[in-house]
Amino acid sequence: NAGVTQTPKFRVLKTGQSMTLLCAQDMNHEYMYWYRQDPGMGLRLIHYSVGEGTTAKGEVPDGYNVSRLKKQNFLLGLESAAPSQTSVYFCASSYLSFRDSSYEQYFGPGTRLTVT
Amino acid sequence: GQQVMQIPQYQHVQEGEDFTTYCNSSTTLSNIQWYKQRPGGHPVFLIQLVKSGEVKKQKRLTFQFGEAKKNSSLHITATQTTDVGTYFCAGRPIPYNQGGKLIFGQGTELSVKP
User: Fold this and answer.
1) Which residues of B71-83 are buried (b: 16+ CB within 10 A; e: fewer)?
2) What is the pLDDT of residues B84-94, one digit of tens each?
3) Closest residue on chain A to B86 (Cα)
4) Mean pLDDT of the region B62-84
C-alpha cells in the first residue's frame, strides 16, 4: 500500500515550457486535490476532483489545468510555466465527505518545481 | 473570501517549554483538522475536532475547538526535539462545500533548541 505518490520529485523548467505532474493513490479515495505551498502562505488549493471524470477550480487555479481520467490518478498541467509558479506542489486524497463530517487528507511527498 | 488566520508564524522554544498555536476563522466552521509537516516532508494528519467546545488530547498535545466554532488551538506541553515542524490548522467552512475542501492556515513553524 503506497498511499499517495507523486512524480517527479524535482523539476526545473524554463519560462514558457510545459509539464505535467502525476499523482496516484491506491486507497480508492473519491476526492483528490492539488495544492501549492509557498513560504508563509500555507497550502493553497489549485484544483480538486470529487470523482473520476470531474474537476473543479480551487483558490488559485490560473495557469494550471487538471484531469482525472481514472479514479486513482490526478494530473496537474502547466501549459506555459512562469517564475511565479515556482513552488512545492502537493497532491492529496480523501474519502468522500458528508454534510457534517470530513475525512483526513492523505498527502503525497511533494514535487519541488523551479521555473527560471 | 473565507480565511483561516494562524499565529504565530514562527516560534522558537527551549526544549521543555510549552508551545501554543492559534487559528481564527472568518466564518463558522463545520470542523477543523490539524496537520504536522516535518522539515522537508509532507503534511500528516493529527486530529479532527467537530463539536463546539471540544477538547482532545494526544499525549503531550491538547487540541481545542472554540464554542463558536470559529477558532481553535494546539498546545504542546514540555516540547521535545521531535516536535519540530510546521503545524497547520485546516477548517471546513459552513455553508458546506462539495469535495470536502479545507481552508488551511498559514502554519506555525516550531523550532526546539535542545
Assistant:
1) bbbbebeebeeeb
2) 999 999 998 87
3) A42
4) 97
Q: Compute the nearest-CA separation of A80 from chain B (Å).
A: 26
Q: In Å, how far are A44, A94, A97, A106 from A40, measured between CA atoms?
A: 11, 25, 28, 22
The pLDDT value recorded for residue A99 is: 62
Distance of CA A26 to the CA centre of its chain: 16
Rounded CA separation A72/A58 (Å): 20
**Residue of chain B whose alpha carbon sits nearest to that of A4:** B42
Give B42→chain A minimum CA distance, Å.
5
Average pLDDT value over all residues in chain A: 94
Rounded to an integer, what distance in angstroms lies between the CA atom of residue A65 and that of residue A62?
Answer: 8
**Which amino acid is it at B52?**
S
- pLDDT surpasses 80 at B97: no
What is the structure's pLDDT at A5? 98
Using CB atoms, pick whichever of A44, A90, A94 lies closest to residue B42. Answer: A90
- To test the contact with chain B by mutation, choose from A55, A91, A102 the residue with the greatest count of B C-beta atoms within 10 A, namely A102
Asked whether the beta carbons of residue A107 and residue B42 sit closer than 8 angstroms, the reply is yes
Kindly state the cell numbers that stand for A56.
473543479
Nearest CA in chain B to A41: B106
CA separation for the pair A99, A91 (Å, rounded): 23
